[in-house]
Each structure stands twice: as C-alpha cells, then as structure tokens.
Amino acid sequence: MSLRALPFEDEDEQRRLSVFHLVGLAAGGVIGSGWMLGAGEAYDKAGSDAWLAWLFGGLLMLLIAGVMVELGTAAPKTGGLIFLPLQSSGALVATVMAAGLWLVYAINLASEAVAMTKGLSGWKVHGLLDPSDTLTTEGWCYALAFMAVISAVNLIAPRIFFRINSWLTVLKVVVPVLTVVLLIAAGFDDNGLRAGAHGPGKGAAAALTAVVGSGVIYAYVGFQGPLDFAGNVKRRPPGEAARLRRAVFGTIVGSMVLYIALQTVFTRYHDAAWSTANMGSSPYAHFAYAAGLFWLGVLLRINGVLSPMGAGLVFAHSLTREVAALSRAHLTHRGLQTARKASLNRRYDVYWLVLVVDCVIAGIALWAVGGSWKTLVAVTGVLTLVVYAVPGVALVSLRGHLPAHSDRRRDAHEVLARASFALIALILYGAGWGPLWRGMTALTVGCALLLCLPILAGWRPALGRIYDAKVHVTQFRDWRTSPAAQAALWLIGQLAVLMLVTLVLGDSPITLDHKVLGGFLAVVTALVCFEGLVRASKRHMLEIPPMLPTPGARGTARPAPTDPRTTTTPNGTTTAKTE
C-alpha cells in the first residue's frame, strides 16, 4: 500500500517504535545534565532536605504524565502535544502551547551544550568558564560547536538514530546507577570527603522552591518523548497504549528513585569547598576520585559530555516532529515540514530546516542569559510547566470525542487533569518572581513572533516569500463571539494573574500567612480558569468538530469538520479555504 493510500496517516507515522526505542526516547531525554548539575543547586536551596525536591518533582511529573498519557493513548498522534490542543481549543491556544514547547526544546539544546562544555572543563580544559560559572569566549565556541554536532547527528537516517540513541541511553542509565551503588559502598577515608559534613535541612517550602529554580523539573523533562511519537508506536500486542504507559511511567518512577538516591549521596558527602575548587566538573566524579575509584571518575567525566549530548539529541529529534505538526496546521512557516534534504543519496524524513531554526533560537537564548546554565534551566522549568498544563484542558474538553471508558475512569481522569493544572500553578508560584518573569517573557516573545510574523509577511512581499503562515491573531477582534479567542484569553489571563500574585505575595518580605494566601489564590485562580478554558473549548468544537486519530486503526479519523470556511488536509488538520 502506498503512502498516498493512507489519507489520515502521515509519512512520519509509518515507522513503528518498540518499547526499547520508546524507553530510549523517554529515559534518553530525562537522563541528561540535570542529575549531574542540579544536585548542587538543590542542596544550596534546601540543604539536606533537597531530596524532597526530587520527590515533589517526580510526583508532580507522575500526575501530569497520567493526564498526558491518557490523552496520547486515546488519540495517538505524532506531534500530538500541538495537534491535540489545536483540535480542542483552536489556533490561538495551540500557538501559546507551540511557542512554549518550541522554546523548551530549543533552549534545551543550548543548556545541554553548556553542560557539555562544563563537562569538558572537568577534563582540565581551561578557559571555558569564568569565575561566575558562565561561558568565556572560548567556552562559547565550544558550546556553539556542540549545538552544531547535536543537530548534525539528527541528519542521519532515523532508523540509525533510534538505534544509536537507545544504546547511548543504556550507558547513560548504567553510569549513575553504578555511581550510587559504588559511592555508598566505598565510603571515604580521612583524606577524602567526610560523611555528615552537610548542613541542616531547610524544610519542605525550600524544597518546593528548588523544584523549578534548581533544575529538578528540568531533569525530569523528556519523559514526553514517546508521546511526541505516539503515532509511531507498534500496534501488535500488547498494543500502543501499553507500550506508551510502560515507557513513560517506567521512566518517571525509575528516574525519581535514581535522582533521590543521587541527591542522598551528594548531601552525605558534600564538601563546601568543592563548589569553588572544582567549578564546572561533575561532583560525583570528584567524590569518586576522593574514594579511590579512579576508573569511575573517568567514566563519570566521559558521561559528563555524553549524557547531555544524548538528551540534546532526543529533544532536537522530537522538536522536528512537533514543529512539523505546527507547520502542517499553518501556525508557522509551511515550508518547515516540506523542506527536507537528502542525505547519503537517499531521502530521509529529516526536517533539516527545523534543526537550523532550532540552532538559531538556542544561540539567541544562550546570548540572552549570558551563557548561564542556571538561568537556562530556570526558564526551561517555567515554560515546561506551562506546556504541561494544557493537555489536561484538552483531555477534559475532548471527553465526548474520545473512545468510551467507564464513567468512573473518565471522572478520575478529569479530577487528575484539574489537580495537575492547579498544582502546576502552585509550583510556578513557589518558584518565585525571578524564574517566572524570565519564563513568561520568553513565552510572550515566542507567541508574538508566531502570531505577528504572518501579518508582517502580508505587509512585506519579500518576507512573505520566505515565511508562509496563516494569520490567526485577528481572531482576538471577535473575542466576544469567538470561542477560540475566549479560550486563549482564559489561558493568558491565568498566567497574568499568576505573575501578579507571585510579584505581590511570593517573594516580598512579608509574613508566612501572606505567602500562604498567595498560594491559595494561585490554586483558586487556576481552577476557575480551567473551567473557563474547558467551556470555551467545547463551544469551539461545536463550530469546528475535531479531527482525531483512532487508536490502533490506519487511515481513519473522526469526525470531519463541517465549518464551510475550512478544509481538511490528509493529516487531519483544518485549514482555511482560499478565496
């Protein structure tokens, strides 16, 4: 059967991924630089209670994953993190989602490149970092080179890419597991680090702050990799849904246990002098050398470069599929999903132009934060939580269009969706004003570009020839009658109120009661806005019924849009008819 004979399945969705490949995507995205560089940041914020930050972050990810996996298995679609909110809530909400997701994945490229540079400095390559732990000119050159290498590897044939990534993930998991086991078993003599030299804990509130600000969320980001390729999962028994659940939940639970163990090792053997004496190197390599485990220290230093690179490979590869979905929906330049380039005299489905744009965005982000890994991680944490909040809205809104389940199961998923939306708001509030305003500023710039570039392209023919996307921002003119515009306003309003509450009650030198009040307001506002989003989304779907893939079926979708102003593309998205 030819590809053209499959009207509702993209060329991208012909490849079938096994559980091994899916775990390679999930664990490969999660096990990056966060576990090596985040432990010290978490310790600085929460002291010996830093392990609670990893526990809170892991439990939050499990809750969010429960919602995302349910949505991804009910309507499996490659690029679904953008496609499904588009179907449920319209182009404006999808644009906010797309801007956040694009920035998360692009900034990850920059942060992993910086982590690789910091890892390289552990090999006594001097001059890469200045005393403030940011990149020097030479460090910038290395970071840009690493970004280019990660992008270049994504140009190889996908079947080879998945094989390389899966086995690289095995190495990335084995190394930290060995680190935990051997460092706990080895102990330290009087010439090394001394157990028990850590400070007191700072409590659960400090650990909650560390979830976003110290890179905990950043370390867990990546579990959604299999959901980015939900349309590519093997369908034979045990089926798509089972494979996705095993990959996603197994990765989160396993990484949570591993991260807590690593933080426990760090806290027990932390030496306050290390943070300045060994800037840029892996703390666990330092511990291994102090314990006399020279070979483990070498392995950790190698992993200090390979582990961030592996995570960068996963994010760069996943981004190409999400941006392709964005492009097919005409929310960005349409050429981003058609401009493919052959490699080795064969045509591979490699979106080379997306990789180029990804590098440009990553370079701009790196310049904007002055080459600081800490700032990149904080911005990524905020943007990630905003992105993770939207699938819950899509799940509840699409309830009547998804495969039938028992009322108890559907009600449970609705409760999970609302709980995750409220908890995300609470975590963002707890992160504080600094990370929040930086993340929201980046999101605002991303949304402005996606919404306004089509208008500029219409005004300037020269720009229009190189940027072709549909104008959606004008929907705000009809906000009184347009459900899609109302849904976007509910989402934007929620984020604006959250920023205001954080500014006034979050970081100000006021009493604990005021801070608790701020958290209460953040949760209540989130729940109110969630209901407004769902109602507006349901009204939108009455005007334009969603096109959703059927689990386990080829070439089927349900139901077709009836709006006379739109037409349906072969991949199931709706676009405006030309006059």
Descriptive report:
- Residues 1-9, 189-198, 272-280, 339-349 and 554-579 have low confidence and may be disordered.
- The chain is an all-alpha fold and 579 residues long.
- The chain has a two-stranded antiparallel ribbon.
- It has a domain at 12-408: Up-down Bundle (Amino acid/polyamine transporter I), CATH 1.20.1740.
- The relative contact order is 0.17.
- It is globular and about 70 Å long.
- The chain has helices spanning 19-30, 34-46, 50-74, 80-89, 91-121, 137-153, 158-186, 204-213, 216-220, 225-228, 240-269, 274-277, 283-290, 294-328, 352-368, 373-397, 407-431, 433-459, 461-464, 483-506, 512-543; strands at residues 548-549, 557-558, 566-568, 574-576.
- Pfam families: AA_permease_2.
